[in-house]
Design a protein that fits this description.
Layout lengths: L4 H22 L10 H22 L5 H29 L6 H6 L1
Helix pairs in contact: 1-2
């Protein structure tokens, strides 16, 4: 499947919107017009939905089982690594992670 450069541009715009929102939060709400984070996240959702749907429709036969298995192998290693590092850091840092937090993550 070919890349669509315009979607990469929109992804960059969404990233900037979220970053600007996080910087604006540090300014204690003095610039309410910079509250762009929610819109950046919505752009990500739209892009993801479009790309996943177009990828599924490009297949000859839509197999949701193989789709979810591919997703799991793509997402779970990073998620489990993150949680492992978080648990390790909690052993040496002042914050503690309880079981409900891990399951929530």
């Amino acid at each position: 499947m070919n890349r669509i450069p315009t979607l990469d541009g929109w992804r960059g715009v969404a990233i900037l919107m979220v970053l600007v929102h996080h910087v604006e939060v540090d300014f204690s709400g003095r610039y309410p017009w910079l509250m762009l984070g929610q819109h950046g996240v919505q752009i990500f959702f739209v892009l993801s939905g479009y790309l996943i749907t177009s990828h599924l429709l490009a297949e000859e036969h839509i197999n949701l089982r193989s789709f979810y298995v591919r997703r799991a192998f793509r997402i779970l290693p990073a998620a489990l690594t993150y949680l492992s590092v978080l648990v390790l850091l909690s052993a040496f840092m002042p914050f503690k992670v309880c079981g409900a937090d891990i399951w929530g993550c």
